[in-house]
Design goal:
- By secondary structure, this protein is an alpha/beta fold.
- The protein has a single domain, classed as Glycerol-3-phosphate (1)-acyltransferase.
- The chain is built from 7 helices and 8 strands.
- The strands form 2 sheets. The chain has a 6-stranded mixed beta sheet, with helices on both faces. Strands 4-5 form a two-stranded parallel sheet.
- Strand 4, helix 3 and strand 5 form a beta-alpha-beta unit.
- The longest helix is centred in the C-terminal third of the chain and has 20 residues.
- The chain is globular and about 45 Å long.
- The N terminus is likely disordered.
Length: 230
């Protein structure tokens, strides 16, 4: 299901219903690096890919269990997912080229939430799928425990739909404090689109945030994928 019309949000430009073209570098990183590691090393599987909008801005929201999450989530949905990255990384010549081609966008260290939200909103308006981890930081149990309202705010501000994704077992594959990964299966479950909050009022943002949390944790509770059906 793809929302046919986005709400018109005052002060925000019209959402681009197209998506930025996948770059050559992104394709190389996906098929030569991320996919082999995800599919072979971690026996990765993904279900619910048909729920991913093929174009237009969408807020991709997931749980966060390890450093493996951004590259896996950014390359497993069939379209690039943009994530925030420290601005210092964009001053490293080769690394800057690679992460930029993969859709990452810079945020200055110590920058306030306002700048980060403005940058993320611009990415959504440009038609990017933009990734947000609901807790903001890694969780040792891999669940959504203390969700922040940032994803709901971005959706309300831009009128973009929310795509909930459950990343199963990444917290076991690469726990906090570990230097080497453990070879356990990592699966992704993509849920159905959630409409953006009708307003930016605190109660509306809280209600949508709670809905996202329940949706992701419910998919986590179902465990690893047994029968693939997209």
């Amino acid at each position: 299901m793809i929302l046919e019309k986005s709400r018109v949000i005052e002060g925000v430009e019209k959402i681009n219903t197209n998506s930025p073209r996948q770059s050559f570098v992104y394709g190389c990183v996906s098929y030569l690096f991320v996919f082999p590691i995800f599919r072979l090393l971690f026996r990765g599987q993904t279900t619910g890919v048909s729920n991913v909008p093929k174009s237009g801005g969408v807020v991709v929201v997931s749980n966060h269990g390890s450093h493996l999450d951004p590259p896996i989530l950014g390359h497993a949905l069939g379209r690039p997912v943009a994530f925030m990255a420290k601005s210092e990384l964009f001053r490293v010549p080769i690394l800057s080229f690679i992460i930029s081609a993969c859709g990452a966008y810079p945020v200055n260290r110590g920058a306030g939430d306002r700048e980060a939200f403005r940058t993320a909103s611009n990415r959504l308006i440009e038609g990017f799928a933009t990734g947000v981890f609901l807790d903001g930081t890694r969780q040792e149990n891999g669940r959504v425990n203390e969700p922040k309202a940032g994803a709901a705010f971005l959706a309300a501000r831009t009128g973009c739909p929310i795509l909930p994704v459950a990343i199963i077992n990444s917290h076991r594959a690469f726990p906090k404090g570990s230097f080497l990964p453990r070879l356990v299966s990592i699966h992704l479950k993509v849920g159905k689109l959630i409409e953006p909050p009708s307003t930016r009022k605190r109660e509306d943002l809280a209600s949508t945030t709670k809905e996202i949390q329940l949706t992701i944790n419910s998919m986590l509770d179902q465990g690893l994928i047994k029968n693939i059906s997209n």
